[in-house]
Structures are given as C-alpha cells and as structure tokens.
Design goal:
Layout (H helix, E strand, L loop, with lengths): L10 E7 L4 H12 L1 H4 L1 E8 L5 H8 L4 E3 L8 H13 L5 E4 L8 H7 L3 E5 L11 H8 L3 E8 L9 E8 L10 H25 L1 E4 L2 E4 L1
Parallel strand pairs: 1-2, 1-4, 2-3, 4-5
Antiparallel strand pairs: 5-6, 6-7, 8-9
Helix pairs in contact: 1-7, 4-5
The protein binds 5-O-phosphono-beta-D-ribofuranosylamine.
C-alpha cells in the first residue's frame, strides 16, 4: 500500500459519514480549538445518504457537502467511481471514513489507497464488519474497543494505526451494547482526533502491515 505523507499544511481532509457524525464533530472541534496547531482542516464532508445529523453538523460548520447514494447508480462500480470523483474534487490529502457504512471499491482505492483512514468500533482483527459492538458482546469478549486503520480492499482489514481498549460490563448485556457503544465512541473520538492530527503533522509511511508515523 502506497503511503504518501500529506504534503500540504494544513492537510486537507474529506470526511465521509453515514450517521450521527460525532467523530466528525470531534475533528471539527479539535481543529476549531487551535487550527494552526492541529495541522489539518476539513474541506468537505461526503455521505452515502441524505437527512443525517452528520451532514447537518457539516452544514452548521459552513462546509461543502456531497451525497452519493448507491441506489442512484446502475452498479456498485459506478457508485464507487462517483464517490471517488466527488471526493477528488476537494483534493484531499487524507480521507477520513468516520462512521461511513459502505465498503469503497477499486476506483476509490486507486485514488485514495494509503490516504484513507477508517475508524471501527472493535479491536481488529476481531469483529470486523457492520456490527462490531454487537458481535464482541455476543462472543462474550471481556474487553473490546476501537481501531483506527488504513482502508484496503477488505472489510476492516487494512494496516492498523492505533487502538483503544474498553472493558465490557455485566450491564452491557442488558441493553444489547448501546451503552458499550457510547463508551467505545468516547475513546474512538479521542483516538481519531489524535491519529489524524499526527498523520497530518508528522507524515507517515506504511511498511507492509506496520504504520510508522514520523
Ligand atoms: C462509530 O462507532 C464508528 O466506528 C461506527 O459507527 C459509529 C459512528 O459514529 N462505524 P458517529 O456517526 O461518528 O457518531
């Protein structure tokens, strides 16, 4: 996987969302707090659906948004190419998939492989896929957490950048992981903000499965 360090300061971020966008908000807040020190800025927010809080957060922040819905395209490949094109229009140094619930395809990876970061609510390689929190609970894991990793052509299989650990509590079985997911997201937001800032400020290389932040 290629690993071009972000060339510009501040690095340009396109953030992709599908839901409530609290990870996006955490990035926006960290940047707002000290734009010069953070080393990156969000230049656009993309989504795979309309009417989500993530897009509202972007609009409140005065950011351009775009939506690519799979059902508006003849095939998954066409959707992927359109998403890649819409993202590329904002010339990002890094793409941040922050709760974006779609697997990107060949065209997207051809353009953004090695520059696309995803956050996942489990300790990969355990419990990949759309139900990481629920699956960890169902398996009986005593600790779980979150993983920030580069996106490759698998489902949550790319090189790991950082992980955070969260303990499972007895009560977590009672609400099917709702409170557990909230505790994971608290850790996840801090981790994502830290990782994206360090990648942007310091540059990085990807050596096989190992990510080295300079
Ligand atoms: C995060 O836990 C992310 O890992 C998962 O969905 C959640 C998104 O949360 N895929 P938000 O939309 O950033 O609030």
């Amino acid at each position: 996987m290629a690993s071009p360090p972000p060339a510009r300061t501040p690095a340009r971020l396109v953030v992709l969302v599908s839901g409530s966008g609290t990870n996006l908000q955490a990035l926006l807040d960290a940047i707002d707090e000290n734009p010069a020190a953070y080393g990156a800025r969000v230049v656009a927010v993309g989504a795979d659906r309309n009417g989500i809080a993530g897009l509202e957060r972007a609009e409140r922040a005065g950011l351009p948004t775009f939506v690519c819905r799979v059902k508006d395209f003849g095939s998954r490949e066409e959707w992927d190419a359109a998403l890649a094109e819409a993202t590329a229009a904002y010339e990002p140094d890094l793409v941040v998939s922050a709760g974006f619930m779609k697997i990107v395809g060949k065209e997207f990876l051809a353009r953004f492989g090695g520059r696309c970061v995803n956050t996942h609510p489990a300790l990969l390689p355990s419990f990949p896929g759309a139900h990481g929190v629920r699956d960890a609970l169902a398996y009986g894991a005593r600790v779980t957490g979150c993983t920030v990793h580069f996106v490759d052509d698998g489902v949550d299989t790319g090189p790991i950048i950082a992980q955070g650990v969260v303990e499972v509590r007895e009560q977590d079985y009672e609400d099917h992981g709702v409170a557990l997911h909230e505790r994971i997201k608290e850790v996840e937001r801090r981790l994502l903000v830290d990782v994206v800032g360090r990648l942007a400020r310091n540059g990085y290389r990807i050596e096989g499965r190992k990510v080295v932040i300079q």
